[in-house]
């Protein structure tokens, strides 16, 4: 027998900051809900980058419905001006929230959703669709039914590949054992994987900068550590930011420190490098080639950003923007090809709706490939979508996004420094080049001057026959991270 839609719970996929915020709003609205989380605890993705300090202070990291529930339970609110680490975000906010009696019984950990569809209806069937429950298939094989689905599953588990064309570089899959995805805990839990090794960081965003500074610190402790940095652009200027001309002293200091490391040879920068091929080398090392030059390293940190995984919703009617992978309405508001340090207008249920009624992707996943997502934006999405599910369209459409005129979108990754940095700029993956004041205090700074992706890239000169370019391009132009490595691949 088919359940009545209104008797079924709203199912939230993911117990990250935004999924838990949605759950708090659902509780506040009196709507039955279930949260399905793949990890074994709350905010499993944030926990993996727990050693990284956020670039937004506490005041922008807490959802208001969640804060209300926590306060009622005697929660001691963190200092709103402090920048927490990911670990502190979990320990001081998300875990206490998930453990509240109003939330805990509704959260199922170790529960991965592998598919979402409509009960008995594939994507083609229209008749009766709106009144038919959603069906969620779990990795265990169990099927659940839902009145609506809020997909807050993030993008952390689907990082971009190293290959410059958006598909894996030749040999990338085989070389997976030496590739680490963004933000390893270089000075902590992952130290042994990097100490004394030749490490190449690929990417030009905030994650790359963060890892490079940590690796430079590691190289001081373990001098055999050699640090290389490959970027597609012909200049690292965007990663360095405004330096002393930057209105943000801490952000300027970050760029300055990175530049100083590069100029001193402690970080070996390779510009105009688009990863084309990886191939095994002696002693477990790997060669990385752009078709012309070849680098020989022991480890690669792939800091090339993230993309959403839409594979679980292929039987739903989604109208995805062909570029961003967000909804079409949201795409022009967040497009890093266009956005400078402008504003993302407040947005909610109307911009997040798909042709499939009752399915909403919110949180980091809602932005698709755009790297400019902020938790505060996700909390407003959660509030608006839940209000709509409760039938309160006035509240759903009254989208508010009170962000600081400046100051939320940059980080000061100086270790153990949790002071607030001054004004807005590059978001995760988007180092900033200037500062902008958002109008009226609504909206948020996002992207970098001229648009994150606006700078043209050099043409990729690749060999058409994989397997030949490494040797061919090596001896004349080899570059190797560090200063000793026997002339890169030629010496090996
Ligand atoms: C290093 C880093 C620093 C950042 N710093 C800031 C900052 O300072 N300020 C800011 O506003 N934003 C910041 N962000 C951006 C963004 O706010 C965070 O990524 C945030 O965690 C996104 O929240 P989310 O709930 O949308 O997704 P996530 O935190 O990724 O949570 C998604 C959850 O869904 C679960 N999940 C995934 N797939 C499934 C499935 N199929 N079934 C069940 N569960 C599933 C995951 O295990 C995870 O717990 C940062 C991001 C990164 C990576």
Q: What descriptive keywords fit this protein?
A:
492 residues; alpha/beta; FAD/NAD(P)-binding domain; 5-stranded parallel beta sheet; 16 strands; 23% helix; disordered C terminus; binds flavin-adenine dinucleotide
Explain the overall architecture.
The protein has 492 residues and is α/β, with parallel strands linked by helices. Among the domains are: 5-157 and 306-402, FAD/NAD(P)-binding domain (3-Layer(bba) Sandwich); 176-234 and 271-302, FAD/NAD(P)-binding domain, CATH 3.50.50. Helices cover 23% and strands 13% of the residues. The protein is built from 14 helices and 16 strands. The chain has a five-stranded parallel β-sheet, with helices on one face. It has a five-stranded parallel β-sheet with strand order 8-15-9-10-11. Strands 4-5-6 form a three-stranded antiparallel β-sheet, with no helix packed on it. Helix 6 crosses helix 8. The chain starts with 9 loop residues before the first strand and ends in a 15-residue tail after the last helix. Flavin-adenine dinucleotide binds next to helix 1, helix 2 and helix 11. It comes from Plantactinospora mayteni. This is Flavoprotein. InterPro entries: Auxin_biosynth/cation_transpt (IPR050982), FAD/NAD-bd_sf (IPR036188).
């Amino acid at each position: 027998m088919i359940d009545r839609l209104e008797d079924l719970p709203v199912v939230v996929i993911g117990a990250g900051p935004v999924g838990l915020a949605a759950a708090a709003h659902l509780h506040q609205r009196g709507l039955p809900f279930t949260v399905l989380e793949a990890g074994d605890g709350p905010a499993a993705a944030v926990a993996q980058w727990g050693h990284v300090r956020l670039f937004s202070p506490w005041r922008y990291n807490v959802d208001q419905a969640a804060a209300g529930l926590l306060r009622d339970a005697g929660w001691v609110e963190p200092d709103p001006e402090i920048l927490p680490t990911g670990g502190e975000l979990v320990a001081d906010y998300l875990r206490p929230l998930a453990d509240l009696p109003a939330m805990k019984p509704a959260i199922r950990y170790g529960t991965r959703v592998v598919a979402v569809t409509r009960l008995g209806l594939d994507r083609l069937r229209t008749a009766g669709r709106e009144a038919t429950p959603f069906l969620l298939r779990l990795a265990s094989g169990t099927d659940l039914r839902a009145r609506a689905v809020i997909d807050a599953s993030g993008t952390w588990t689907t990082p971009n590949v190293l290959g410059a064309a958006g598909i894996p570089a030749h040999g990338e899959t085989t070389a997976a054992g030496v590739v680490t995805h963004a933000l390893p805990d270089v000075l902590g839990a992952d130290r042994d994987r990097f100490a004394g090794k030749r490490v190449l960081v690929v990417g030009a965003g905030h994650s790359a900068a963060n890892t490079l500074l940590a690796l430079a610190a590691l190289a001081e402790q373990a001098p055999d550590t050699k640090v290389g940095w490959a970027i597609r652009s012909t200049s690292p200027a965007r990663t360095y930011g405004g330096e002393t001309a930057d209105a943000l002293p801490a952000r300027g200091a970050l760029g300055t420190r990175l530049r100083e490391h590069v100029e001193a040879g402690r970080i070996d920068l390779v510009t105009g490098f688009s990863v084309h091929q990886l191939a095994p080398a002696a002693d477990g090392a790997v060669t990385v080639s752009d078709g012309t030059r070849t680098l020989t390293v022991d480890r690669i940190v792939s800091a090339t950003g993230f993309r959403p995984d839409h594979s679980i919703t292929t039987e739903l009617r989604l109208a995805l923007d062909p570029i961003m992978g967000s909804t079409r309405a949201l795409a022009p508001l967040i497009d890093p090809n266009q956005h400078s340090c402008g504003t993302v207008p407040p947005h909610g249920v109307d911009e997040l709706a798909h042709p499939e009624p009752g399915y909403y992707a919110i949180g980091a996943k809602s932005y698709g490939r755009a790297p400019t997502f902020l938790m505060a934006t996700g909390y407003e999405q959660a509030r608006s979508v839940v209000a709509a599910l409760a039938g309160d369209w006035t509240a759903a459409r009254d989208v508010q996004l009170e962000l600081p005129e400046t100051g939320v979108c940059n980080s000061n990754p100086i270790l153990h420094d949790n002071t607030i940095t001054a004004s807005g700029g590059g978001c995760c993956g988007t180092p900033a080049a200037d500062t902008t004041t958002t109008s009226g205090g609504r909206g948020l700074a996002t992207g970098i001057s001229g648009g994150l992706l606006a700078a043209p890239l050099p043409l990729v000169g690749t060999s058409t026959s994989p397997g030949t370019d490494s040797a061919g391009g090596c001896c004349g132009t080899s570059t190797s991270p560090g200063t000793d490595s026997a002339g890169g691949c030629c010496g090996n």
